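Exercise 7b. Backbone tokens:
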């Protein structure tokens, strides 16, 4: 049997991944998103480019950190601000966001109230900067994932059929 050996993540060396049991979380898949985020700089772009008119300086939950929390909540399937209260001390969320406690539903709702046209424009600029960064990456190797290895040969001029070199027929 092949098993994954213990490894650590680049964004936080204290996090170890192994399969020996212990504390469990149904949101551990977010660790991979966080690793991807650390390598591509998405959260960094939000922290540097987000513009929200806010007369108050927040120290515990900055506007940028609250937006990043909302992104991770959406990735995990928690689409409403109300779910932030349930996730307040969830270990995977607090670890990847570097907090002892997440921003609450009222904090996220107040953030929503401060969004204006300038905020939308800054979010569009963040999106464009991120896309530009990703498109500029040049990978040295190529990987093909064949998620369906079955072959169904086609006959005639069926739309979408093409020659399959592996099976040496029209598939």
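Sequence design result:
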């Amino acid at each position: 049997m092949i098993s994954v050996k213990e490894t650590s993540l680049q964004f936080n060396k204290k996090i170890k991944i192994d399969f020996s049991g212990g504390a469990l979380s149904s949101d551990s898949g977010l660790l991979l998103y966080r690793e991807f985020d650390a390598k591509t700089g998405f959260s960094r772009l939000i922290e540097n480019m987000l513009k929200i008119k806010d007369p108050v300086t927040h120290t515990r939950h900055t506007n940028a950190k609250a937006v990043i929390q909302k992104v991770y909540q959406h990735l995990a399937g928690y689409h409403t601000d109300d779910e932030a209260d349930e996730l307040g001390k969830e270990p995977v969320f607090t670890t990847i966001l570097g907090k002892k406690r997440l921003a609450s539903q009222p904090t996220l709702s107040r953030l929503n109230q401060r969004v204006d046209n300038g905020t939308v424009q800054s979010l569009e600029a963040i999106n464009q900067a991120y896309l530009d960064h990703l498109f500029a990456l040049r990978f040295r190797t190529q990987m093909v994932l064949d998620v369906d290895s079955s072959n169904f040969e086609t006959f005639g001029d069926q739309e979408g059929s093409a020659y399959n070199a592996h099976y040496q027929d029209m598939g």
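Instructor comment: Residues 49 and 113 are 19 Å apart (CA to CA). The two ends are 34 Å apart (CA to CA).
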